[in-house]
Each structure stands twice: as structure tokens, then as C-alpha cells.
Amino acid sequence: MEIFKEFTFESAHRLPHVPDGHKCGRLHGHSFKVAIHLSGDLDPHTGWIRDFSEIKAIFKPLYERLDHNYLNDIPGLENPTSEVLAKWIWTELKPLLPELSAIRI
């Protein structure tokens, strides 16, 4: 069984390793949408893999670090491509959400 919870946050960034003149090398912002996917067996009592309110509470500290901030200033996001951002979120969440199966940006 798989469930997912989506979050949206606003952030600015620039990609430091693109060729000179590339538009992504300039400071710009996005409305990022993140989907956190969880896979596992249903709890026979609750019928859940994980309570959605728990997922929200676990993601909240990351959300607060990402929302309305400059991603390049966050350790681990110095080159904040979507792929690097997904990997960073995975690394932060996996110890807290063992059911984590995918991150989608």
C-alpha cells in the first residue's frame, strides 16, 4: 500500500554550476511542490500506514527551513537542483519516517 502527502513552499535559489548566461544561474524563485510517499502494511487497528497529521508534524521543521528562504544558504543545498533538493529531503526524513518510499518535487 502507498500513500502520499503533498506540501507547497516558496523559496529562492540560483544554480551555481550552470553555464554562464543560463537563466537558472540568476537569483529566482519557485513555488515548490513536494510529495512525500510512504509504503507499508496497513495497521490492522487504525487502517493507516501512518497518520497524515504525523507526516505533517515530521515535515514541519524542514518546511520552516525551506519556506520563504534562500535555498543556497541551507547546508547541503548549496547547489539546489530539484534532484539535490529531493535527496536532501530524503536524507532528512528517512530516519524519522522508515516507511518513506519516494520524494517527488
From TrEMBL:
Family per similarity comment: Belongs to the PTPS family. QueD subfamily.
Keyword Zinc: yes
A UniProt-annotated Pfam family: PTPS
Keyword Oxidoreductase: no
Protein name as it appears in the record: 6-carboxy-5,6,7,8-tetrahydropterin synthase
Cofactor: binding details: Binds 1 zinc ion per subunit.
Catalytic activity: 7,8-dihydroneopterin 3'-triphosphate + H2O = 6-carboxy-5,6,7,8-tetrahydropterin + triphosphate + acetaldehyde + 2 H(+)
EC class name: lyase
PANTHER family cross-referenced by the UniProt entry: 6-PYRUVOYL TETRAHYDROBIOPTERIN SYNTHASE, PYRUVOYL TETRAHYDROBIOPTERIN SYNTHASE
Cofactor or coenzyme needed: Zn(2+)
EC code(s) of this entry: 4.1.2.50
Annotated positions binding Zn(2+): 13, 28, 30
Pathway: Purine metabolism; 7-cyano-7-deazaguanine biosynthesis
